[in-house]
Amino acid sequence: MAIVRRFLPPLFLVASLALVPGCGKRGQLIPPEALVPAPITTLAAPQKGGEFQVSWTGPGKQEKGGKLEDLAGFLLFRRNVLPPAEDCEECPSAYKQLVRVDLELPEGVRQVGSLWIYDDFDLKKGQTYQYKVRSFTKSGAQSKDSNKVRRTAVTPPLPPVLEAAGSPNEVTLNFVGLPPEQGSAAGYNVYRSKKGEPMPLAPLNKAPLTGNTFQDQEVILGKTYSYAVTSVATVDGQTVESAPSNVVDAGLVLPD
Fold this sequence. Notes:
Immunoglobulin-like; 2 domains; about 5% helix; about 35% strand
């Protein structure tokens, strides 16, 4: 009786065949750098009182233009700018990380709308600081550095004193402040919120007010508003605001 022997292909050949792709079309290969967030371009650091309000908005796109859907947080860095002969921005130890912001549980920052804010109080008068921020994804991919912002800490003007009075048509604010210790006076900024809500980041006026009164006619009868005013100074080309004045509540008042 003849014995029928079956041919068994070598194991390596079976494995090789298993790796041969099917006849379907392959997807386009995506380079890893295309998946990282686009660099942030909105970093700013105005001085308000004794702090820098370092702020930025998160990116909405990937570096190559695709929609960013896995943003996980931000890394904020600061360095002390040294005299020209000693300064070395590219040195590995130049920047120190100030805060890591995880979007699932953000700590050390506050969010106002789409804006993220880090309040930097650790300042030394006369020292120039430089900031940059990066964003990162859930997979750990980091963006390139943001725009960089330099700011020198100066002595801010003192906050003004504020009074407010309502009438049938408007709320009138009266305020007065002292001349700044450093730089020259540039005017005042007026802030308004609904009573019980935080003050906005932007003032009502588009440019600093040079007078000592302000009539607010953009108010609604029956609502109470909270007001605060800051003194504004110009120091070495930088605009600096004081801390807010006392907060005063007011609204429209009908005649008796």
